[in-house]
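Revision sheet: structure tokens.
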Amino acid sequence: MNAISRLRTVQTRSISPENFDGSAGGGGRATEGTGASCARDLGPGWKISPSVDIEPGATFTLGEIEGAGRITHFWITTHKDNWRTLLLRAYWDGRDEPAVEVPYGDFFCHGWGEFAQVNSQMVASNPHGGFNSYWPMPFQNGARLTIENTSVVPVRVYYQITYEIGGDYSGEGYFHAQWRRSNPLEYLKTHVLLDDVVGAGHYVGTYLAWGVNSNGWWGEGEMKFYLDDDDEYPTICGTGTEDYFGGAWNFDVPGKGYTEFSTPYLGMPQVIRPDGLYVSQQRFGLYRWHVSDPIHFATRLRVEVQALGWRSGWRYLPLRDDIASTSVFYLDRPTTNRPATPSADDLEIHLGAAPVPDLGAQPPRQPD
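Predicted:
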């Protein structure tokens, strides 16, 4: 915060459907767009192009920036049914491989398609689905942000990307984010968040969408960071899942049970409880931002978490839960090893009932 008063010779720009290229004086000039009908009595300058429609299977370029700069804020919103069917990507310095490839909702701490207030320094999620990222995203020679619609229906998206140009960003790392899912986790295996990240950098954030597939406590497992030459054993080994996310004793406040919390650097803002019908298992959303305590590595990084509960005789029980992770880190290069792009089936949330068919609307049965 001490730097907020320092004068800098940079320029602020913003990309949105009202100014697709972020040019100076380029905002509000649209003559057609998703708001044209609403503004038909008012004309140009009156919210003619506030959003974009993305067809099924299409990838839309949210913004493309030339030269050096740094994205400072990213706001976006769409209906909650789209939070797990959209894929966000970011490309730095003209690379063909993305540094960021994460489902839309998971990037903003919403992996279950249901809203929860998130009050953190790096991600703020506000009613009802106003998603904000304050992760700094510097680049040396261009940036491109895209969004892919993996669903079978058109999606309307509102967004704004704020960035600066004109500064010296040569000493800054490239922003990376990777998503992985174990559904279900293999028996006696760990959930891998990152694997064989090559380069020098620092790890800065974790979000987990954790779906419990059995009764009892699920968070006894350790979070482990394998740095540089670590092989069988990690340099950093936590003492339990709830401990890593800043809680204690199962997040269980006596008389209240699992208790949601959201703070600047860590939280469990979401607890989805069974409803006695189709939502049969508990679901959790947790985040941990290593802003004041980044985890530095010089050559290589691997991150994993165990899934452990309890069985008889005070013995650990390896679990087979549904775990989806988003890992955020800065690296000295714009690309590194990353997992395969998830399919629509990989992304699908198995939460709740399928729509009940309207039998009266069914087409007549064809003759045999």
